[in-house]
Amino acid sequence: MARPELDGPVRARRRHLQAVGQAVKAMEAELYSLDEQLAALERECGCPRPKHQRLAPHSLQRSSSAKALADLATTTLSAATARSQMRFRMRWQLKTWRMRRRLQPAGKRALAVLHVSPRYGRVDAKLLGLQRSRNMKQKIAEGRYTHTWGQFKQDRFRRALQMPEETKVPPLERVALLAWEGRRSQGQPASYSNPDGSRESLRLTLWAAQESIDSLLKWCQWFESWPNSLPRQPYPVFIPTKGRAKDAHLNWRAAHCFGREAFEKTDEQTPCAFVVAVVEPSEANEYREVWADLPLLVLPESDMGPAFVRWCIQKISSGFRTELSHELGQLGPVHQMRYCWLVDDSITSFYRLDPLSAQLLQEEEERLLNRGALVPATPLCKPTGRKTERRSQGAMFAEAMLAVQRQASRGVCAICGFLRDDGTAPMKSAQWALDSTSVFKVVLLNLVELAKLQVEYVPQLRLFEDVCLNVQTRNAGGRILKCMTYCYWADNKSFGGCAAQRAQNAAATRCTGLDDLISASDFMELPDDTKEALQHVYSWVHRDEERSRQRKESLGLPAPLPAPDTALPLSDAEAGSGVTFLDEHFFDPFQDPDVDQLALDDVQVIQGTQQKQKDGQKANERRGFSLLRPSGQDEVVVLDCD
């Protein structure tokens, strides 16, 4: 439960009372001293004052100024000693906590501040205070959202992305792409496991016009040459979609997305934009009827789950060979990509967060202070208003992706993503967030770095496949970069996609078990590193669901049954992961930590270069990053470190 004594207004009142008490004691000591000095002068003059005219209050116990000062000095010394001892204990506990936390895998540490979505877990968002602010009504009354509330409608963006372009449909062709593991022909085809247990080569079919097929091959050639200059168009975009032929956001020729110009041949050095929808074979014809000229990448099987789809995209992007003749087994050369975008079919818009000028920031602060004075409730400890403002002009999808691509080319980040705007994006001050596991829906995969780390999607996983990939990346020493100067908006659709799995979880009478995430046979076949990451994900889900269940039981509300015990051989807890004095603050995301700033003492950000100074970490953890502003200018940026 949240501790009320840690709330901001309570801390502010406590600090104010302490300051007033110290000032009162100092004034009393001065009054006693003045009284004795005046008494000495009065004795010399022979005209003592009446007692009721003395300076010190009559309600206070009379004593000499020397004794009062001595008592005050003793009290001050005792308080200073106690404060020093407390700080020493806190520093010692913090050092111990850091050492123990360092022993934990990086992926598990990153999950400490991430919440399970109520859409996928048995979590009551209202009871746990998720996706809402405890003082939202007060913020609204103080006018924090005056300039943003209801100002950014998504209807026109949604309609533009759901409306196919009226163009002449060119002849369509089908090309079989065989996922290939290995640099050259000495490699071997990638394979997957069928539901019946047999294994087959991973073969996807690209159903598109010849122009789109040539665009994909040109991108592979561009990655092969890897010129020094950055491309003028975003890397190839893969959009998994299911059950939303008429409602998926697939028209990336829209003006606010890429624009029509991005798909036209304007530059010989940079290929034109390539956007492909990844569909199941049972729905390919339905999507083709709605989207006549959209490139479709048809999966080998249907109903294999979202993790399998994302795994197929990663495999086919890492390397593939075109199948010239299936009967003769003739294959084309190996084609590979270094980067690819993996985007959900529910993204509606992107916004750029431009910083406010100094004058606007001052006006915003004064407006909040004046508005807060009229609010009858207790004002917030520190009025914090907008630091940025949303801007949307032109092809924002392309602008945001190119900004992240510029940054990705300067470092070795395995995964890059964006901030999802929940209405509070203009309140953010950081420009980049490093090693945040909350990177979903729109991700840039560094296929080369992921291959070096031996990290890939777990195709057998039924839920939380994106979280598991992030945890695997962090455990292997990879870095995750999150752009905070561009944010996206997305729809939460109640049909298609993972709707069947969400409905099954909602109808369950118990919390999520490990068997609900992956079958026992599939779990036993995973590598040890993947098993460890999956166990961290399950512990994260179990943490939030168990806390929600216990709170429901304490309030007398209907609660699901506890998660069943698993018979799978799980690894023991990491050494040094026991609870310490400060663990309650750092590992409970529902409490307001009082020492968050102290936890960042070992992180240095100098002239835009970030490097974690931690002992005992892998070499990958110590690789520096020269961060850019999304505009491309070299200057100091604000970095939010995990």
From TrEMBL:
Signal peptide start and end residues: none
Pfam family, one: TAGT
Coiled-coil regions listed in the entry: none
Region (Disordered): 549-572, 608-627
Top-rank lineage group of the source organism: Eukaryota
Compositionally skewed regions (Basic and acidic residues) per UniProt: 612-624
Residues annotated as domain TET-Associated Glycosyltransferase: 235-364
Name this polypeptide is given: TET-Associated Glycosyltransferase domain-containing protein
